[in-house]
Design brief:
Layout: E1 5-8, H1 23-34, E2 38-41, H2 47-56, E3 63-65, E4 70-72, E5 79-82, H3 87-99, E6 107-112, E7 115-118, H4 123-132, E8 137-138, E9 153-156, H5 162-173, E10 180-185, E11 188-192, H6 198-209, E12 217-221, H7 227-232, E13 235-238, H8 244-249, E14 252-253, H9 261-269
Parallel strand pairs: 1-2, 1-12, 7-8, 12-13, 13-14
Antiparallel strand pairs: 3-4, 4-5, 6-7, 6-9, 9-11, 10-11
Helix pairs in contact: 1-9
């Protein structure tokens, strides 16, 4: 069955170190759009952080952000889905992180109404701010804003495998029916509503909004948070810079992001 929908991750997939989409990748995306194939973006980024990429690739479809917790179309403003983490669980998680042996090694990000809230602005926060193009709001004690459900919690740790260690512990504490736990980079631990992941979001977009089947969908991604959509789609492609477990679930592995791997994959499968 012919591919009718192409879903792309952003960071380290269509955008590498430069934080931009190269002309070659844009031209490849335009080539499939001219054939009538729809293009969507699915990212862990905040909605407003992802909007410039939506514009860059001239997508006409809703934008999947926060790993699927927030789906909204920048063209008309219609929000199709918002699945936040319940306040009671977010507060439990905050206690867990602040009481952990790694408390001094991590930054905690919470997202409400597409705003980023942090305890304090650190060096890692500055890096995140520069790449995402958002302004963090430092509130000291995050409990004062967690009386509202948070769209996502992000734990940032530049130290070794701290994020992986915390992920392992949390997976023993919370079932997949309680939280979706994943990593988008070795130092990012991403926490969302149990139904908020790129696989369920891609299915929602393809099947509910567009009337397509999984066999008509091709996706490209680079990390663990992309695995649900890689396994859902008829064609799942991993970037050459993806971790080995991600490459293993893919149908094909393309070149790295700095070698325009998305363009290579499009040329091979949709050219």
């Amino acid at each position: 069955m012919a591919i009718q929908l192409l879903v792309l991750d952003i960071d380290n997939t269509i955008a590498g170190r430069s934080n931009q989409v190269t002309d070659r990748v844009v031209k490849a995306i335009q080539s499939v759009q001219k054939k009538g194939i729809l293009v969507a973006l699915a990212t862990g980024r905040m909605y407003n952080s992802a909007r410039r990429f939506h514009q860059r690739v001239a997508s006409q479809l809703p934008l999947i952000t926060y790993n699927g917790a927030w789906i909204q179309n920048p063209l008309d403003g219609v929000k199709y889905q918002h699945l936040p983490v319940p306040s009671e669980i977010a507060l439990e998680l905050l206690d867990f992180f602040e009481d952990s042996a790694h408390a001094s090694e991590i930054d905690i990000h919470c997202y409400l109404d597409d705003q980023l809230y942090v305890r304090e602005v650190t060096e890692e926060t500055h890096y995140y701010q520069a790449r995402a193009g958002v302004n963090p709001i430092a509130v000291g004690d995050l409990r004062q804003i967690l009386n509202q459900p948070t769209t996502k919690m992000l734990i940032v740790s530049p130290e070794g495998d701290v994020a992986q260690q915390l992920l392992t512990v949390l997976k023993m504490r919370y079932s997949a029916d309680s939280l979706h736990l994943t990593q988008s980079t070795p130092k990012y631990l991403e926490i969302t509503h149990p139904d908020a992941n790129k696989g369920t979001a891609t299915r929602y977009l393809a099947e509910k909004l567009l009337g397509l089947t999984a066999e008509q969908v091709m996706v490209i991604g680079d990390n663990f948070n992309d695995m649900p959509m890689l396994t859902y789609a008829g064609i799942g492609i991993a970037m050459g810079n993806a971790p080995q477990p991600v490459q293993q679930v893919a149908d094909w592995v393309t070149q790295e992001v700095e070698a325009d791997g998305v363009a290579v994959a499009i040329e091979r499968f949709l050219g």
